[in-house]
Description:
The complex is a heterodimer. By secondary structure, chain A is an all-beta fold.
Amino acid sequence: QKEVEQNSGPLSVPEGAIASLNCTYSDRVSQSFFWYRQYSGKSPELIMSIYSNGDKEDGRFTAQLNKASQYVSLLIRDSQPSDSATYLCAVPGDSNYQLIWGAGTKLIIKP
Amino acid sequence: DGGITQSPKYLFRKEGQNVTLSCEQNLNHDAMYWYRQDPGQGLRLIYYSQIVNDFQKGDIAEGYSVSREKKESFPLTVTSAQKNPTAFYLCASSRAQETQYFGPGTRLLVL
């Protein structure tokens, strides 16, 4: 059974700083990775997907994948109070259609 | 607009009662999913369906039932056998090995 682990937090970051969120996974053959953001009381929404080693940037967000070490991270530059949310990491399961979810890291951006 | 709708937003269940949560998508996705989320917890898979008239149990299927008679629809019934149904229920859809997109969720409460 694949596993995905995240630090539950809360992770507190000052406004304008870089927030760094980490996710480790147990399966070496995973090919794709997803970061979702979930505001309190709302449903998850996709922030980024990453499929190959290295960095992928989208605006203030950068996903970093290291398959050898089996971790994927999400960096948020110039953090804003609106970034305060729970961030979920997911990797494909044994089936082509399933995702295995981490429990999420709660991020708090302090003004 | 393409998307996923869930209804109702809030649902109250009396003891011994079966209740049905609706999920509809117009994204032409083959796969649909039901997740349960408890406060401060990650997503747990209840059932998923890859094609019409076929579905598979997830990690916590006991006390729940589903049907997939149409590609667009994947209703979830919470039966009286589910003794602790209070949770946030999320429906999602996807193409194979691709991003899952979520509906707004249904919050189920027990009277």
